[in-house]
From TrEMBL:
It is found in: Cell membrane. It is a multi-pass membrane protein. This is DUF421 domain-containing protein. GO terms for cellular component: plasma membrane. It comes from Sutcliffiella cohnii.
Length: 226
């Protein structure tokens, strides 16, 4: 067990936060190991239950020791727990950060919609947390709308329609809005973008306003560690 567990830990870290899900990586491995030990005992009646009990107790003690180390030692805590990853900054997707954690634009867009965010331009900061969940900080005007829209008459803003995803242009999405490829390319040229393949994400809203996020977007935001 003490030989396999470090290997499983390294594999879990390599797989990343997306694969692990909501559990911290070491807790995930503890649950997996406990399940394997108990499953082996149930599957093979010839296994001595004393050995199984000893293994379960050892795993529980090891888990407690690791938790105490994580609390007392910041370095160990950061090693065994994924750091938050910034994926959207001031309405722009950070492509390199998304690649590091194996998240696609479809994953992030879906998670934004689950947070009731339908306009990427409204996002000031969006983080993928250590448990794989998305945390979103909207720009100030939109935050006020979100908290006060029940008491005030806020105009309907509709949803964004993606027209470019990872350099691929979707003409049917433009036609749905009564637009065409020539209109889009003209808008891109106004932003000094000559090649559609340089665009990571582009969308239009109900007012036909274009929002663009390039593949080369960089973040100058303050690093956040948990």
């Amino acid at each position: 067990m003490f030989t396999i567990l470090p290997l499983m830990l390294l594999v879990g870290i390599y797989m990343g936060k997306r694969s692990i899900g909501e559990l911290p990586i070491f807790d995930f491995l503890v649950v997996l190991t406990l399940g394997s030990v108990v499953g082996a005992d149930i599957a093979d009646p010839n296994i001595n239950h004393v050995h199984t009990i000893g293994a379960i107790i050892s795993i529980a003690i090891l888990q407690k020791i690791i938790v105490r180390w994580k609390i007392r030692n910041r370095t160990i805590g950061r090693l065994l727990t994924f750091e938050p990853t910034l994926v959207v900054h001031n309405g722009k997707f950070l492509v390199e950060n998304m690649k590091k954690i194996n998240y696609s634009i479809d994953n992030v867009l879906q998670m934004l919609r689950q947070k009731d965010v339908f306009h990427v331009a409204d996002v000031q900061l969006a983080f993928i947390e250590s448990n794989g969940e998305l945390s979103v900080k909207l720009i100030s005007p939109k935050e006020h709308v979100r908290t006060e829209h029940v008491l005030t008459n806020v105009p309907e803003s509709g949803i964004e329609i993606p027209v470019i995803l990872e350099g691929n242009l979707y003409v049917d999405a433009l036609e749905y809005q009564g637009l065409n490829e020539a209109w889009l390319r003209q808008k891109l040229l106004q932003e000094k973008i000559a090649n559609v393949h340089d665009v990571f994400y582009a969308s239009i809203n109900s007012q036909n306003e274009l929002h663009i996020s390039l593949k080369t977007e960089q973040s100058n935001s303050v690093p956040i560690y948990h």
